[in-house]
Amino acid sequence: MSPVIEEHARARLITDGPLTRPVPVDLRYDATEDPRTVHITLPGGTDWPFGRDLLERGLRTPIERGAVRVWPCGRTQLIVELHSTDGVEVFQFEIRTLIRFLARTRAQAPATATPSDGTPEKRPSRTTTTTATTTTAAKTAARPQRGAQAARG
Length: 153
Hints:
- This protein is α+β, with helices and mostly antiparallel strands.
- The chain has helices spanning about 50-60, 95-110, 130-140, 150; strands at about 5-15, 20-30, 35-40, 45-50, 65, 70-75, 75-85, 85-95.
- The protein is globular, with a radius of gyration of 20 Å.
């Protein structure tokens, strides 16, 4: 199976006018390039790379990272707003198209490492700070192990 996933999709370009227009877009994921990044290529060849987790979270709740804003619009639509020096472009996607694409990317993504304690280690996202990871690890280490009290008694 090829590590690159490409899917041709249709989005609606939202404008100031009363009408929207459908535009072809390409969704692309390359696990060998960066397993955390997806690309949306717009008509004219403009490529927008951003975190896969941004798109996944945007399916449930509004989220913004850098020049990209994503939010659900009703139960079946997703809005992706892209800011650049040329202005703002707003696209409306069918959620099912993005869910199918993201499911394919998850199946292709490299497996996460498993540390010695047996819990799966999550790869940090671009918004995760090392202090948050350290704090979570410290809290986990400070908790007593289940069954440890019963063994003493």
